[in-house]
Amino acid sequence: MGTPRARRTAADVEKVVLLVDEHDDDEDDNSFKGHSSKRTYHHLLLLLPLLALGYGYINSWSFPFPSPEPLPPFVQDGIKRCAEISRPPPNLRDYDASRKRSDRYVKGTGAVWLKNGTVWTGEHHGEEVLYGADVWLEGGVVRKVGKAGDADFHELCREAGDADLAVDEVNLNGAWVTPGIVDVHSHLAVDAAPGLEGSDSTNSLKAPILPWLRSLDGFNTHDAAFNLSIAGGITTMLVLPGSAGNIGGQAFTFKPRWTAENTPQSMQVEPPFVINDEDGWVRTKAWRHIKHACGENPLRVYGNTRLDSAYDFRRAYTEGKKLKDQQERWCAAPKSQSEPFPESLEWEVLADVIRGNVKVNIHCYETVDINDLVRISNEFQFPIAAFHHAHEAYLVPDLIKQAWGPTPGVAIFANNARYKREAYRGTPYAPKILADAGIRVSMKSDHPVLDSRYLVFEAAQAHAFGLNFSEALSSVTTHSARTAGLGHRLGYVRPGYDADIVVWDSFPLALGATPKQTYIDGIPQIIKPHVVDKPAAAQEISREGNYDKEAAEAVESRGDPDLRPKKRSGRVVFDGVAELFVPLEGVHTAGVPSRVVVDNGEITCVGTECVVDQAEFTAIDLKGGSIAPGLISTGSKLGLIEIAQEASTSDGKAVDALNAPDLLDGLLVRAADGARFGGKDELFAYEAGVTTGVTSPISNNFISGYSYSFSTAAEHALEPGAIGSTAAALHLNLNIAKHSISTKLTLLRSLLAGNDLKASDELHTAFAKAAAGDLRLVVATSNADVIAALIRVKREVAPPLKLTVIGGHESWLLADDLAKEEIGVIITPSRSYPFNWNTRRILPGPPLSHHTLPAYLASRGVTVGLGIAEECDARLTRFEAAWAYAAAPDVFSKQKALDLASGNLAELLGLNSEARAADVGFVAYEGDVFSFESRVRAVRAPGRGDLDLFV
Ligand SMILES: *[C@@H]1O[C@H](CO)[C@@H](O)[C@H](O)[C@H]1NC(C)=O
Ligand SMILES: *[C@@H]1O[C@H](CO)[C@@H](O)[C@H](O)[C@H]1NC(C)=O
Ligand SMILES: *[C@@H]1O[C@H](CO)[C@@H](O)[C@H](O)[C@H]1NC(C)=O
User: Fold this and answer.
1) Would you say 593 and 580 are in contact if contact means Cβ atoms under 8 Å apart?
2) 137, 291, 605, 814: least CB-packed within 10 angstroms?
3) How far apart are CA 877 and CA 688, in angstroms?
4) Who contacts 407 (Cβ-Cβ below 8 Å, separation ≥6)?
5) Which residue puts its alpha carbon closest to atom 5 of ligand 2?
6) Hey, what CATH topology would domain 100-179+490-530 get?
7) Any stretches that span the bilayer, and where are they (predicted)?
């Protein structure tokens, strides 16, 4: 079906092609499975009068006789609108090799000849990985993918020369190449960095139903995250409004590339509306997008219970349906109309949803919510593009298939769970379970909830916990492009597709894989990339982890499996040990150290010659694995909280020592007294090698109180070893809250100097101990100026003070002073992001800087630890240490990298006494502890006489 529109701007040329040729043989997206006959019939009925009408219209336009009276302008306008709304849902055909220029082509862009790469194409039929392959980028599109040195490349090169086009020849030497990473759930530029009060355009807070809002209207082109995301390979993102309300507004797709125009609209990819010279604001053929949300957010923000939310959706869709019916009635007889075409700014997009022209993206976690929306989609007959977050989707794949129209995809996190009740049943095995059930899985960032720069890390975790590598890579490329309605031009390295390409320093799902270069529209985005040479092993395609048993338990228990270890033994003999990172003073050694004997929970002998009575020992083959100290997790409220947003599951907020009612005045709170054991995050962390948590009281006060250390394995506080230290260190907070930073520093100076303040004895005693170096102060701040002020206080009033900075993102600016004063830094979270003004001067790490923050600080002599900011991420501690190692093998040995999350933390958190280092137990890993594939097989928890076995 043609359109009556006469003239188009150059930028729109591509869309003319699309309008004329809109066959698509991609069944999944475009036939309406299970409803296809119903749907087609419905459309035909609608189209019959319109085809006649369109014909009449074109007729009168081309052959002006016998033309009695010109139609009144409102009827002419209405007829145009009828043509527009009558189009079938965007049914965009795949681009093929005949597409030689992108609508986003930037004049002057040269050609790029990528030579001798290992290309993951995204094709699932035979040609998924091409070794020794070349890729030609020109005109903003991929022109050719083929065998290195194929004659066609030389021909393209000759043609480029004839056309005076610069050709950038890049020798990849076998480096991995993938399509650009597509983030199907981002708030980039609406929740911009650094976060400032003036820049928040994530949500409206006016009402739960706001389909008329548009994320495009709040898109901040000054977001500091664009280049960071590009440095992680992000080339396209669907920018959704927030989830405060049930219908938060319309979403739009963007590429993060800086444009010469420097405008939100120039950053859009395939916009559903464009400014056209002739008609002004016109609808294109592209998909529209809308955000819906159910469950807890609308409850918290608007008091909408699930019942209210469902009613609000139905009310809104009733308006959309009413409008759609009115419009169709008008279009059935336009010439006899006395009123203009029925329009509604508020409801038109919902009419378009019911017509099937809008990708509906629903933030929805729980079975009940997914079911509500599946019913609503059937009641009003609209398809759902994807359920987002969807932490219970893995429990109900068949329900998801009952949504009206094609089966929705899911867009999920790899690990981020349990922060609220509806996320409580989240499992790391969900991507695999869902993919096996035939659901299209996308991993997403919810940027800046997760920094989209590390979206590939989400795919890599999904892979490590069961998803095969094709599905894992597809989950951030092919599948996400398709879910975002852009699968016809993005998600593959394929001729005619957008020249959005990432060249990687290792296999993209290897731990710490980092782009060497990101191309968007054929333009290299990283001006002078810093590249770390990765070992050959990191170039190999890794096998997915086998967690079938754990996945089955998650499903069988309906998302609440018993995570407690089930086997114990005090006497274990490990064979196949490749590396030992535990101290061995006084341990008997005999022969090649590939055997380790543990008796009564202690390592008693190392070596092949160690003699054991096999009958009395449990034998475990670590298959080239390692034995290392237990890891420590700090920085979150692990051990004080089970579900962060449920007050009854937590210790609650500590009293302010400086502002408390009389009885509590000057009290230093001890987190140990609020300790909670047996939570899911503790157990997930334990089975991942984290034996010890160190947590300070939940507080926004300057003086937070004493942290405590605890065993993640303990069931209650009275078990031996459950609580290590009850007053490990005194924690202070210099992030802005009630009082100014200068007020707090003045107070700190006075307390350390022992000035005669009207403070409690307890406060005076504690700060006197700190000033003498007998009690460590751990101070939360990231800002370099604040850290400098702290250093001055230490120098001027308390030189013996033992000080640790936690946060520390700008600390690299003062590395030498920190080293000189022996002030340590616990980088928290362990990868920096310019969340706010005080963390904006980050050291981003490769490919944007040579050093990572931990490596830079360590290389200057600062004692560094890695902190974990969220309870659920405690189980990722090992990966963070391994990542620090992978990014800076010149600075860290493996032992030093492990220290970042163990020995150094023990010191920086005051756990070691003069006489004794803290007991963190030890962990036996099968496989290399520095890879995703390694697996914990046994743990000796602090204070225990036997080992928990995970075999
Ligand atoms: C292509 O890359 C591979 C892997 O690094 C290398 O062994 C080979 O020599 C390269 N071939 C050419 C022609 O550069
Ligand atoms: C990868 O996983 C998907 C989803 O379970 C499955 O359809 C596909 O066959 C798997 N591919 C391979 C090569 O095993
Ligand atoms: C982002 O990268 C572009 C080059 O692609 C560069 O021109 C720009 O200055 C960078 N922006 C920032 C804030 O660093």
Assistant:
1) yes
2) 605
3) 8
4) 28, 33, 400, 401, 438, 439, 440
5) 436
6) Urease, subunit C; domain 1 (2.30.40)
7) 41-58
Of 907, 903, 781, nearest to 839 by C-alpha is 781
pTM of the complete model: 0.93
141 φ/ψ angles, rounded to the nearest 5 degrees? -130, 165
**pLDDT tens, position by position, 857-878:** 999 999 999 999 999 999 999 9
Q: How far is CA 708 from the centre of its chain?
A: 30
Q: Could you tell me the sign of the dihedral formed by the alpha carbons of 531, 532, 537, 543, in that order?
A: negative
Task: Please classify residue 540 by burial: count the beta carbons closer than 10 Å to its beta carbon, then call 0-12 exposed, 13-18 middle and 19+ buried.
Answer: exposed
Element (H, E) at 937: strand 935-940
**361 Cβ contact list (under 8 Å, min separation 6):** 184, 185, 238, 240, 251, 289, 290, 291, 292, 385, 386, 388, 411
For residue 530, report the phi and psi dihedrals to the nearest 5 degrees: -95, 125
Residue 125 scores a pLDDT above 50:
yes
Which tokens go with 594? 């590939």
What is the third-level CATH fold of 181-305+346-469?
Answer: TIM Barrel (3.20.20)
Q: Give residue limits of the domains in the chain.
A: 2-86, 100-179+490-530, 181-305+346-469, 562-629+922-951, 631-920
| Ligand 3 shell residues, CB under 6 Å | 227, 258, 525, 527
* Residues paired with 573 in a beta bridge: 597, 619
Q: Tell me if 483 sits within 8 A of 386, measured CB to CB.
A: yes
**Site residues for ligand 1, CB cut-off 6 Å:** 116, 132, 173-174
Nearest atom in ligand 1 to 116's CA: 1
DSSP code per residue over 425-451: T--TTHHHHHHHTTPPEEE--TBTTS-
Vertex 134: Cα angle to 133 and 138 (nearest 5): 150
Best mutation site among 433, 470, 544 for ligand 2, i.e. most ligand atoms within 8 A of its Cβ?
470
How many Å lie between the centroid of ligand 2 and the Cα of residue 126? Answer: 13
Tokens of 91: 């049914």
Q: Which atom of ligand 2 is nearest to the CA of 470?
A: 1
Residues 6+ apart with CB under 8 A from 353: 290, 317, 320, 360, 382
User: Do 724 and 692 touch, CB atoms closer than 8 A?
Assistant: yes
Q: Candidates 113, 116, 169: which one to mutate for ligand 1, based on the most atoms within 8 Å of Cβ?
A: 116
At residue 651, what is the residue type? D
At a CB cut-off of 8 Å and minimum separation 6, what does 807 contact? 735, 780, 781, 782, 826, 827, 828, 839, 867
Tell me what pLDDT residue 67 has: 62
* Closest listed residue to residue 426, CA positions, set 384, 471, 473, 458: 458
Q: Which ligand is nearest to the CA of 474?
A: 2
Pairing of strands 288-293, 247-254: antiparallel
Q: Which residues line ligand 2 (CB under 6 A)?
A: 435-436, 468, 470-471
Output the pLDDT for position 61.
44
**pLDDT tens-digit series, residues 159-172:** 999 999 999 999 99
Residue nearest ligand 3's atom 12 by CA: 227
3-class secondary structure, 485: coil
